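Input sequence (97 aa), recorded before submission:
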Amino acid sequence: MRDAHAIIVAPWITEKTTLLKEGRGVLAFKVDRRANKVEIKRAVEKLFKVKVAWVRTQNVAGKRKRVGRYEGRRSDWKKAYVRLAPGQKPIEYFEAV
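Predicted structure, token format:
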């Protein structure tokens, strides 16, 4: 198994994911594109010391971007929605803020 820090790239914090976290106990992460659901579950349980009920993943296609007459493309990436088991306290990403 790969390192948990290599699988979980960053928390994905938006208005939608904040509402999911507060209402349903669902967390969102930007994860390595090669990671599967089992690896993501083990990585979250190891890093944050919580129990995970289920994991859902979504492959996000990179957008086309232009700068003047030059066109490029952003990288594709993977997003994971992780639901905590009942009775688990939600993870606080930024406790010092």
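Checked by second reader. The two ends are 33 Å apart (CA to CA).
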